Task: structure prediction
Amino acid sequence: MPKRISLTHFLIDEQRAGRVSADLRLLIEVVARSVKTISVTVSKGALAGALGEAGTENVQGEAQKKLDVIANEILLQANEWGGHLAAMASEEVETVHQIPFDYPKGGYLLLFDPLDGSSNIDVNVTIGTIFSVLRNPQTKDKDPTEADFLQPGRDQVAAGYATYGPSTQLVLTVGGGVHGFTLDREMGSFIYTHPFMTVPAETCEYSINASNARFWEAPVQRYIAELQQGKDGPRGSDFNMRWIASMVADVHRVLTRGGIFMYPFDEKCREKGGKLRLMYEANPMAMLIEQAGGAATTGRGRILDIIPERLHQRVPVILGSRTEVERVTSYHLDPPS
Ligand code: P6P
Result:
């Protein structure tokens, strides 16, 4: 049995290697503790009275599930007092969440989708938490504004997600590759189980909500049609499809065994700019995928190079096995005449 290394042990090693500061290590530990608390509530489901609608709407105008609200509160309260953060931003909160004046401030900004995939909660399908960490550009005596959060994804210092599935896993990058941890519920600690996760360049598995096909742009319609023609078509091989409708679960599969995940631009979400949110969904997932050797674009450009304009901005997302992402992107940039 290999030596069991905890998340704390891993982070101390990363700190000794100079990849994380003491404050960033504390930040990640506090997020991990929040994830454990969320995992306990998620795993109780109906027994915790945590299923169903909250009866409220979030800033996106989406009906909130009770667990959306619970997870959001857990993350906000756990991260307020530690002294490692200058402010937070959440999918569930319209404006920047400032650190209460009676708590010390740190040098980082934390952004998160507290519970991604909420439509799957009541049917007991894997959901998750996604987080992104930026440096605070402001001086400590000033409250960070929304503009301070609007940094391109390439400036993230850390990104990660938790999946609440058959096991609870935490997948993390601080810039030195992608590393996975599994929650040992008896010990209450995350154990290092997936070192250096990588996305194979090639794949035969794609992930997209095919019910939107009539709304896709031509390059995506062309790409998917080719996959569906299988070995008798231009690709010369058969492809499989998976769609869980929890980005965290679909991206975790891509990080675990390869694939291409797509929520591309479509006519239904034209005025919104896309379906998935840039700051706390696309950017952290793009950092993880690139750190694992994959690629992440909007179809027309690298996601991590986007200069954000709004905190809750949405973008098209095409990410995963590099060869496939590059092919789809080439169809957008160099369409047949
Ligand atoms: P659709 C979940 O609500 C989410 O934001 C992502 O996690 C997921 O990939 C997508 O929406 C699912 O969207 O249109 O399939 O319901």
